[in-house]
Amino acid sequence: MKHIGGSINIQKTLNTFISSPNCLHKNMSINLSASAAAFSFQVSSRLNGLDKPTVWHEFSPLAAEYNAVNLGQGFPDWDPPAFATEAMRLAVDPKGRNANQYARSYAHMPLAEVLADDYTERFGRTIDPATEIATAVGCTNALFCALQGMISPGDEVLLLEPAFDVYIAQTKMAGGVVKFVPLRSNPEKTAETTANEAFVLDMEELENAITEKTRAFVLNTPHNPTGKMFSREEMTKIAEIIERHPQVTVIADEVYEHIVFDEENSPHISFATMAGMYDRTLTLSSSGKTFAATGWKVGWAVGPPHLVHAVTSVQQWVNFSAPTPNQDAIAQSLVKAKEPYEGYESYYKWVAEEYRRKRSLMCDALRAGGMEPIVPNGGFFIMTDTSSIDLPAQYLEEKTVAMPTDPMPRDWAMSRFMTKEVGVTAIPPSAFYDTVNVPLAKNMLRFAYCKGDDVIIEAGKRFEKFFADKK
């Protein structure tokens, strides 16, 4: 259909009808005119395929419809710590810190200075708060600005599958081409295997995916949705590959950096600390997951001036700066988080231990349903093997707008079955795979355990009751 000609013809027909004596209601004419405008409108080609409903549009309403325990979306359902809410109060108080006007576009300087101190200590090098720190409206916004600032049409961006769906969409919106490298399932995994061992990156496969058009590689650790944390040995091999391909910049997404469960045997390692990699790496993180304040939307980018400039060059024309009160509250909170908290050495130690406890509750709940959790080493998501569950065939025959392939993938159908009949909602990991690799997710579901104990325990009760009745 030629939309321009079509819209003119439709509008002429509507005008004729509206002006005729048969058109008795003015509201009808307004509605018809609006319908004509909607019919002729097209979203930008940059959004081709990105304007359709997503996994989130499908499963959150489905969970509400069936009154299911929603362990899908990853946001904490408890309040931020008291020191953080007090920091926000001080930030907006005219007699307090009065951080109520625009911040500098790069970053609110009090936050930039705190971040520079933190990363100077962590990276073992001096970080300049004026040129090596950029803040943004959450890590998602920082990533958007980074990709828009680094990627030209036709450039390739490497993503590890399963990949957070935002990575894919933002790459496409920047005009980039997504190249996928899947984490492979370890054939030797057992019930005791953690995510670190269960999901394996084939280094040869990674390097073979790099071409002369490759401009960026997004490395997420702790990894969403698997909970894998890349070891120093793995990081060293990745750094060796990046060293051989000087056109590639690493974007390191580290938003779950403080939610780690075995600092001695599986510590969080920032890729920027690998030999020779600081100038090749833009490190992203945020405050929302750490402080249970996802709505505050404060994220940041840390790296050499040329990479940070790519972020700020975009941000100055988009949102100019992140909200100043939010940045100021996080600046205060980052300082407070290092102090003793609830009997622990620091708030960071407390939050890691709290999530370790919730991870155990979640594993118990899943095993009550006969599923085998792949125990995460970091983050607050858990991948679970559902191969032991008999899925009613009719669920595979359903069709929804958001499903990634037709026929419906097993994991997608399994999540719908769980929601409707068991009363617990998970996210099907096929949402995080390229079409050709969707089969890799067929026997898995992703559950979020950033929820209250009562919510996780209720999920376990529903699993146990439903599957016990089936025996």
Describe this structure in words.
The chain is an alpha/beta fold. The protein is built from 16 helices and 14 strands. The chain has a seven-stranded mixed β-sheet, with helices on both faces. Strands 11-12-14 form a three-stranded antiparallel β-sheet. It has a two-stranded parallel ribbon with strand order 1-13.
Mean pLDDT: 92
Low-confidence stretches: 1-24
Shape, please? globular
**Major β-sheet, in short?**
7 strands, mixed
**What is the number of strand segments?**
14
Q: What gyration radius follows from the Cα positions, in whole Å? A: 24 Å
**Helical stretch count?**
16
Which structural class fits the helix and strand makeup? alpha/beta
Strand order of the largest sheet: 2-10-9-8-7-3-4
The separation of the N and C termini measures: 56 Å
Strand content: 5-15%
Helical content (DSSP H or I, runs of 4+): 40-55%
Compressed to H and E, one letter per element, the order equals HHHEHHEHEHEEHEHEHEEEHHHEEHHEEH
What is the secondary structure topology, with strand pairs?
Elements: H1 3-19, H2 26-40, H3 55-65, E1 69-70, H4 82-92, H5 109-123, E2 133-136, H6 138-150, E3 156-161, H7 165-173, E4 177-182, E5 184-185, H8 195-198, E6 199-200, H9 203-208, E7 214-220, H10 232-243, E8 249-253, E9 281-286, E10 299-302, H11 305-315, H12 324-336, H13 347-368, E11 372-374, E12 381-385, H14 393-396, H15 410-422, E13 424-425, E14 444-448, H16 453-470
Helix pairs in contact: 1-2, 4-12, 5-12, 6-7, 6-11, 13-16
